[in-house]
Design brief:
heterodimer; A: mainly alpha; B: mainly alpha; 11 helices
Chain lengths: 327, 269
Amino acid sequence: MKKYLIRRILSGILVLWMVLTLVFILVHTVPGDPAQVIAGELADVKTVSEIRAKLGLDQPLGVQYWNLLKGAVTGNMGISFSYRYSAFQVVIERFPATLELTLVGALLAVPLSIALGIVSALRRNSVFDYIAKFITLFGISTPSFWLGIMLILIFSVHLQWLPSMDKSPYYFPQALWATFSGKPGALWHWARHIILPAITLGAWFTALIARMTRTETLDNLNRPFTLTARSKGVSQFKIIWGHVLPNSLIPIITIAGIQIGILLGGAIVTETVFMWPGMGRVMLDAIFARDFPVIQTATLIFALIWVGINLLVDLIYVVIDPRIKLG
Amino acid sequence: MAQVALVFIIGIIFMALMAPVFGFDERADAGDLELRNLPPFWYPKGVWKHPLGCDVQGRDILSRIIYGARTSLFIAIVAVCISTFIGMGVGLIAGYYGGKTDDVIMRIVDAVISIPGILLTLIAITLWTPSVVSVATFIGLTHWVWQARTARSKILSLREEPFIVAAKVSGASDRRIVFRHIIPNILTTILVVMTTQIGYMIIIESSLSFFGMTGTTISWGWDISQGRDYLSTAWWITSMPGLAILVTVISFNILGDWLRDVLDPHLRV
């Protein structure tokens, strides 16, 4: 187990190194001069060379690359051009907002999608199955920015039930705390602000997992172990809960773990539509402003989350399926 | 359902190709400020000449949707071709040679997959000058991972099949085995993945256009972003192009599902 963990962490570091290298290559194969791009086409030579010196772009490529790697380890990724303080700080400050949004989105998506998938597999070709199929097809085919705008149109503009942008000043634990210490509206205020972005973010994921759950469940319902259990008179509930679901979950969480990148990418879009003050939006702003230190930091953090979640997925395997031994 | 989807896809490709012939390109560009935010035909103020209404600059929304289909479909199809070419190549090498080669390639795949694809595309596009062709290329270059994984897993199981082993034993070259035996056997799978991927690429393209990053203003995503400020007064400006995306992507997905059921029922996409 320990050996396995060490190996996984090493390969995670390898992935992060490759991500950094990839971004480095991308930034440095730009046709033309990044400093010129940042300064604008009309800037004079002096300004451009000043910017170049400030970015360290006048140093040899090897030195720049080394500085980037060193920075990634020490958390010193340079000074953000637009915010004028540590890029690492800029990104990390916005990390909790993205984390909260993604977690709520995933918490809405996972139970709903697994239930949807199982029931439509059990009631195959029933009206419910068709409705579920329609919902999931809709879910994987809707661009999330448009879904977000449509939700705003319905719930904010027409019904005026929910706010169309911004985040509650509280995070969930704070909101919970405030609710029990004299501010009864805090939790409601928190929920009202997060519900539309979370649905927008989770819709695609819900549809994806529901589709996979349905396929996997159908597959496992006809496996010998299910038939054996059934012939022994095990109840339907126990068959599903004890035999079919655990066997279906392995491929589902594998895909879910791999696709978490898409969920994080979705955060960029969702946060922009709902003015959510998270990493995704800061990333997009950085891309528009060509704020390279922030772009590099945010990319690294996105990759770090992906590596972490996929390590977690491997550990979950052991819990779900005792046959799997890591190492 | 699959027939309906196929007819719709053929229809929209036909309309997109023929748009200039029917004059949709001129109508999509010609604004008339008197028609600003004109509602669709079922409103009392709506007119049949502009069935889906007009946008902020008084341009016919239906024409813009038809003309905008060119951007979306072109980018999606070119991107899928590029990503399939790369993905198949990478998957082939990893799956066929196995061992160390496979390990190295799969780590690279891990690195690519761990950055949200849209992020990678965004970074690439901002650094280079965006145009329809460069955007299509970048989406293709950053989204080949699914094809690679699918091709690889397919080849891993193919490699052990008796006919491949027999070919190897009888001294066939790697090239012959790959081109005569392996590629024909994974083509159907790749076709299924490609069809489903087109829908996904359309969504990626429209997201990029929504951010104004594809270098063109004739596009569904761009029109959606333009109508955002008028949600309360003219909901159709934003809703109609979105519906166009939705229906097109659903059609590709239905077609993909149907192809999978017919050609390769065990595939999980």
